[in-house]
């Protein structure tokens, strides 16, 4: 078994797997080191299980809005069984087989840098193997849930995304801390599946505070109408759980404490750089690994270290990590071959344009590019147009009491879109049209000729352009 490869990737999440595949496609050999399950957070404890839990909840809401339609009670056991199937019962045999088919070498164990181009792998049994990279090492170690330093919190062993996504039982009383994407999606999923008393504790004044303000407001209204107690401006001061697995008491900065069956902390992520040996190559031991647009780590002599996915802190999204991975694998191969490494496909420019994101709640929230606030602070000559999605025939036909809104942020100087946000049922699949318009910088006068079909939700495009004055 060789211990020398052209490229060594640490972490077999979606980003790591893809960087290896692209490097091999470019004619290089690659090894992928994974300490847990090949497939990473996304496949087992993040995107896939969360969406499997949300789908029936969302579908039930869609059905309830159609007069004459109803759903029976949700069969929660069946939903959890389908979720278990979606995460391959936490067995990564299929992913390992895929990595080997690339073909890349799969190495099970914990990877750690031990100097330039060297990776020490500690196998589950404790054996240590030293791998050497001829050209590049790529860090793709992802991120972990971050827990704030609240007295009693760690001792109370709260849930994070890692536990809630693979829950085998739905707690009747649930407290969720956080107002970001994980908090919103998992509150919706757990409440829809049977967490009757669900309380959301949000430190700030809004949900999804990196998005357009109306998105958080519409989502808050929907959660509150559905019976979730959403509280803003509340801090958790102390947590108590005297019996492991027993009830948990959450003390607050204002109001009486809440006792619940489970506490979910959805308070952000930190890059998985702990004990990665970054100090051995002159980088800070903690924090995201900073990279340039070719995913090369900055500040490393000879430029042999790269970082893709959550670990570089650019955009914590699977599709963006995979995009960075494609760029990274291709750029490494080009550099090894001595080809030009500055072609347009070899720079991850989409990262800074504003990554597309769908929040799979009811209503769905999706956005790409810059918000109005971000565009203004970047100095663009901004004009915004908004439209009530309920007034679009295609949306109205989806069901009664449709609630949704769209907003486009226009660069007036160039008459192109800087950002688009859609909130409402059935808008997730619309997002890619906005991504193409924003990334392709399609002039509005040209977009006018992209005629949306009647009666689809896509007619929102026509309405937004009419609002703009076309
Ligand atoms: C609940 C939840 C839902 C989400 N839903 C979505 C969604 O719907 N859409 C979306 O785009 N994004 C979603 N995300 C974000 C998405 O999960 C991440 O952006 C994505 O998983 C990042 O991929 P990655 O390959 O960078 O890292 P990861 O998926 O975290 O994979 C990193 C891998 O590296 C391994 N590793 C770490 N350190 C070492 C080491 N020293 N040695 C060996 N192996 C190591 C880990 O075990 C892991 O397998 C969600 C996140 C959460 C928490
Ligand atoms: N559908 C999707 O695309 C999807 C789904 C889930 C997660 N993700 C990605 O995963 C990443 C992590 O999501 P997240 O929701 O964990 O993080 P986040 O950064 O989106 O939200 C963190 C939330 O926790 C709050 N918070 C932080 N510290 C706190 C404290 N001490 N006390 C109380 N509240 C505190 C913040 O105010 C914020 O509301 C995001 O970047 C997101 O893009 C994506």
UniProtKB/TrEMBL annotation:
Binding locations of NAD(+): 178-185, 268
Comment on bound cofactor: Binds 1 FAD per subunit.
GO biological process entries: 2-oxoglutarate metabolic process
Cofactor(s) it depends on: FAD
Keywords, ordered alphabetically: FAD, Flavoprotein, NAD, Nucleotide-binding, Oxidoreductase
Residues noted as binding FAD in the record, renumbered to the chain: 51, 111, 141-143, 310
An MF annotation (GO) of this entry: flavin adenine dinucleotide binding
Similarity comment: family membership: Belongs to the class-I pyridine nucleotide-disulfide oxidoreductase family.
Organism encoding this protein: Streptosporangium sandarakinum
Disulfide pairings: 42-47
Domain FAD/NAD(P)-binding as annotated: residue spans: 5-317
Record-linked InterPro entries: Class-I_Pyr_Nuc-Dis_Oxidored, FAD/NAD-bd_sf, FAD/NAD-binding_dom, FAD/NAD-linked_Rdtase_dimer_sf, Pyr_nuc-diS_OxRdtase, Pyr_nucl-diS_OxRdtase_dimer
EC number(s) on file: 1.8.1.4
Taxonomic placement: Bacteria, Bacillati, Actinomycetota, Actinomycetes, Streptosporangiales
Pfam families reported in the protein's UniProt record: Pyr_redox_2, Pyr_redox_dim
Source organism superkingdom: Bacteria
Domain Pyridine nucleotide-disulphide oxidoreductase dimerisation positions: 356-461
Name used for this protein in its record: Dihydrolipoamide dehydrogenase
Gene3D superfamilies from the UniProt entry: 3.30.390.30, FAD/NAD(P)-binding domain
């Amino acid at each position: 078994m060789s211990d020398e490869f052209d490229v060594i990737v640490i972490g077999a999440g979606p980003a790591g797997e893809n960087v290896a595949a692209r490097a091999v496609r470019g004619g290089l050999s690659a090894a992928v080191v994974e300490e847990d399950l090949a497939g990473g957070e996304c496949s087992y404890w993040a995107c896939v299980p969360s969406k499997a839990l949300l789908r029936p909840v969302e579908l039930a809401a869609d059905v309830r809005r159609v007069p004459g339609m109803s759903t029976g009670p949700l069969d929660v056991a069946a939903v959890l069984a389908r979720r278990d199937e979606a995460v391959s019962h936490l067995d990564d045999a299929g992913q390992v087989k895929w990595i080997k088919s690339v073909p890349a070498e799969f190495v099970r164990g914990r990877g750690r840098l031990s100097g330039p181009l060297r990776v020490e792998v500690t196998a589950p049994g404790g054996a240590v193997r030293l791998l050497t990279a001829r050209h590049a090492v790529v860090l793709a170690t992802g991120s972990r849930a971050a827990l704030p330093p609240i007295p009693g919190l760690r001792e109370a062993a709260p849930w994070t995304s890692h536990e809630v996504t693979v829950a085998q039982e739905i707690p009747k009383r649930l407290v969720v801390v956080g107002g970001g994407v994980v908090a919103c999606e998992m509150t919706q999923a757990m409440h829809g599946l049977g967490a009757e008393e669900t309380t959301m504790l949000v430190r700030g004044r809004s949900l999804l505070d990196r998005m357009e303000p109306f998105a958080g407001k519409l989502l808050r209204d929907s959660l509150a109408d559905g019976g979730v107690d959403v509280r803003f401006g509340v801090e958790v001061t102390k947590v108590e759980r005297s019996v492991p697995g027993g009830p948990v008491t959450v003390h607050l900065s204002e109001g009486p404490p809440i006792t619940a069956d489970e506490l979910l902390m959805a308070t952000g992520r930190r890059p998985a750089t702990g004990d990665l040996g970054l100090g051995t190559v002159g980088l800070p031991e903690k924090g995201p690994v900073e990279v340039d647009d070719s995913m090369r780590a900055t500040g490393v002599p000879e430029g042999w270290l790269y970082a893709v996915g959550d670990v570089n802190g650019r955009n914590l999204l699977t599709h963006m990590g995979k995009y960075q991975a494609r760029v990274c694998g291709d750029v490494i191969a080009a550099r090894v071959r001595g080809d030009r490494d500055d072609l347009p496909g070899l720079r991850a420019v989409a990262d800074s344009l504003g990554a597309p994101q769908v929040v799979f709640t009811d209503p769905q929230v999706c956005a790409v590019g810059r918000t109005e606030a971000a565009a203004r602070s970047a100095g663009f000559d901004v004009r915004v147009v908004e439209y009530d999605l309920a007034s679009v025939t295609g949306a109205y036909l989806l069901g009664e009491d449709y609630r949704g809104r769209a907003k486009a942020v226009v660069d007036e100087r160039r008459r192109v879109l800087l950002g688009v946000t859609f909130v409402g049922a059935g808008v997730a699949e619309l997002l890619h049209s906005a991504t193409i318009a924003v990334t392709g910088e399609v002039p509005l006068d040209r977009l006018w000729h992209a005629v949306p079909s009647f009666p689809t939700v896509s007619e929102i495009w026509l309405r937004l352009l009419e609002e703009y004055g076309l």
